[in-house]
Amino acid sequence: MKIEKKIFLEKNETVGDVIKHLSHTSATKVILNIPSDAEIATSVENFHMLAAAALNRKKILSVESVDDRVVELASLAHITALNPIFRTSERAVSDIVARHTKKTVSEESKKKKTEIKKTEEPEHDYAKKPSDEGDVKITVSEERTEGIKKDAVLQEIFEGRRDTPNLKEQKKLRRKIIIFRRPKSIRGFLTGLIVMLLIVAVAGWFVFVKLPEADISLVLKKTTIPLDGTVLIASDITAPSFTTGNVTIPGEMLSSRQNLQMEFTANGTTSVAQKAEGTLTIYNAFNSQSQSLVATTRFMSPDGKIMRLNEGITIPAAKVENGKIVPSSIKATITADGAGPDYNFSSGIKWTIPGFKGTSKYTGFYAINEDAITGGSTGERAAPTEKDKADAKTKIEESLKNALSTQIQLLMTKNLKLLDGATLFSITKETTQPVEGKSNMFSVYAEGVIQEFVFDEEMLKQALTNKAKQSLPGNEDAVRLDISYGTPNIDFQKGTMSLPVTGSVVFAAHIDVEALTSSLENQDESAVRRTIFSLPGLENATVTLWPFWVHQVPADPQKINLSIE
Q1: Residue 40 is part of which domain span?
Q2: At which of 344, 360, 380 does a domain end?
Q3: pTM of the model
């Protein structure tokens, strides 16, 4: 007895869950109802596994679903599948089919032959499994009937002239049935044809348009003109000239100034008698007229020490307010008349002017030092030796030169040429003095200037080339220039340089590369050779068209490689 059962799956059920359903049901024919977007419909491998599981358990498996993807995947795994919505003839399926009389295989074979049932349902390619009860049928789609007729064994089974095969034979027949593929539709044929034509078109474009190249190499005749002369470079001219025979070009004198002060250790000693120095505030409490005092005017302290004005001054007139004189004042620097510490004074001392003694101005003009007067001393102190001074001079000049060389580089541009011997560095001022507050140190102050005489080397080369070209009859280009410079003779004060130059200029015929390339486009090999060998000044040439089947220069100028030597 055969039993049919329909199993309704949930979306999230896996292959393992379905195999459990197959194992637990006693029905021989099982129909799986699979919903849309089911987990099992994510891969065709899931349906292959179901087909194998059904075969092992001797189940006849089919699938129904409203999801076309499920139907397609089941068909790919050779499981009969259909969409019930579009089914034209459908038999109602009950969970249990009534039992019928059991018959032996021998009796059944006498009454009728095993049939191959033709169905309009989507194909189920593998042979149905034999059962202990009832007939065994092999279901094959209508579309594979023609393929089956080509095989003798399958033809006999299809026509009922051969008994139903056993399970082992069914497996062999299943492998035969599945090899008969559905014939391609006209749409698939047209799609393949279009793809093939596109491939042929792309291949043709690549072979006959993209791939071809032309390599053309020209070797031109050369003319060498020697160079041997002196170039005059001057900062007071503005343009190059070679009309007088000698080449003259403009030059430029670069200049940079800087000062520097450095401290050094004094390793010697010297005797000193230092005079005190300070500042006085000088008052006019005499009248409403100004008073002039010359340099070295004496001021006397209460104990008779003399200070002298460093510079002449004019004391402003006093003011008269309400009949009273309001003193005016002015500050002035002074230096002690003698050396030593006796001339050092604290602040607040009143100073008189001995030159006014015996007159009424003596009491009307006076001075007060608001700050202390210091610096008077005698004895020995540290002083630089002659070697200290020489070493310090070398060091500060080297440092100043390096600083100036770095600074003047900022004035250089890419086109300017600086030759050896075209740089002049000099010290314009240099002094040595003690360092205040550091008795064993001395400082050196220096001012320096650096000058560099430079010229535009490209301008020089062009002037030499133009002069050499004067001796040639045709329109030729300089293709190589070799020059070397001798020792320059420079006058930094006048801003001139005489520069010996030797070398040579190599000329070749002028070729308009762009125009020649344009004229060669689309020419065949013989026309290319005629064009090339008609060029003036040509020594030899080679023309190569690539690949070997190309016999014409490409139309694309980017594919024409023209080199000139």
Answers
A1: 4-177
A2: 380
A3: 0.46
